[in-house]
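Bench notes, afternoon.
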Amino acid sequence: MVARYQKKPGYTELIHEAGVSKADDRLRVVGAIDEANASLGFAKALLADQAKRDLISSCQQILSLIMAVIAGWKNKNTPQELEAALSRLEQELAQLKEEFPPPNEFILPGETPVSAALDVARAVVRRAEREAVWLAQHGGNVSDTILTYLNRLSSVCFSLEIAELSKPQAG
């Protein structure tokens, strides 16, 4: 038996809200964050370092929470959970920058498969950040904490890319 949905084409549901146009600005932002999450997953799959894989996994969990918040999910503990996640991410970023300082010149994507995947993830997270900023500036449910988290996450991707490029390359 084939499952058939009785929804009108071009519409979907958000948390506690039916009949939402797929052109809704919230869905554009949730979709951009979902793409960032998938890009991070691809980069994570290529990473050999378990600590870096774990860092990306924790970021992916927070991105899922952010998508839920933008889609209308409400929980009294969410603001504190996001603040704590931002604090942890900023600590990770500071540690990465100390261990792997940014270069003084531009780097070209694609030196290694892992660095390329991290660069794609960085760019996709930056796009998600721009979409979230737009929604925040037009009345959407996007806190400064969410915007800052997305900004720091793209910086973490860049720092992870620098870390990858710092490894001795075979050949």
